[in-house]
Design goal:
This protein is mainly alpha-helical and 328 residues long. It folds into two domains: 222 residues, Cation efflux protein transmembrane domain (Alpha-lytic protease prodomain-like), CATH 1.20.1510.10; 91 residues, 2-Layer Sandwich (Alpha-Beta Plaits), CATH 3.30.70.1350. Helices cover 70% and strands 9% of the residues. The chain has ten helices and three strands. The protein has a three-stranded mixed beta sheet. It is elongated.
Amino acid sequence: MAEERSESTLTVLVALGANLAIAVLKLIAGLVTGSAAMLSEAAHSVADTITEMFLLAALRRSSKPADRRHPFGYGKERYFWSLLAAVSIFTSGAVFALYQGVTAIFGEEREQSSPWVGYLVLALAFVLEGVSWLRAVKQVRTEAAQENRRPREYLRLLDDPTVKTVFFEDSAALVGLLLAFGGLAMHDLTGAAVWDGIASILIGVLLALVAYILGRTNQGLLVGRQADPAVVRAVRDHLAAAREVEAVVDLLTMVTGTDRVLLCARLDFVDELTSGELERVCVRISGELSDHFAELDEIFLEPVPRGDPELRARVLARYGRPVVVPPV
């Protein structure tokens, strides 16, 4: 976990340094050329820089240990600050880009000057963004391979929003640079500022889409998303294999932070167990689960009869079918 946190921090720091340098270059180029697309890209990089600052806060605050007021730790702070980062991408980048695009199309005709400055800055920005993007891609591929997953599936199930945010914002940055280049070139070739405006609007739409995807991801994690389905199935199989367990009646999991999962299992134990034996069995099974599944941060095992109609109704309402594992 510490190694992964260090990897995430390095990925964010690389992205922060690249975006800060790019924002300054784009702003200068936008002021020199008068290009709406270049100014939109400058706002894009400013939004990305603010995003990285939020992500650094997320990494720092989410690593605080549990205390009396927060007995399950501060893991979800990472999702809160990452949600703010998504809002920042929309408000600081998308809205400004859309405004610049509409103004360029429907406002007064803008003259373009020294377009070569814009081309040079876009080329340098593409190289810098590429370095940050390759860093994020490397981390995604490495961690996906460790879990025997495809990168796309890994990103969908990932509970570390910092890596996902950097990957998506850097991908959007590279596409945005190509859009800005197209708008700048078409304005240069045709003399019509409408192309510059169209590029700016497309950049705004792109940023809004990225902000929506990241916002939805962090919303699900803040509300309380289930753990990785593969982990849930493995935990259920491990519980069902215990000789003292007749059936897994209910299984609840919730992601409480990056690589942190809360588990509550309702089990129907064999009737022959005494109360003392039941206590020792619960301790033993809890220890086995902790040894086999490093992400299980808190484990609660509750003995219940499988025939309880009220509990069965709740399980059916939640999953649509009972999760009872028949005895072997």
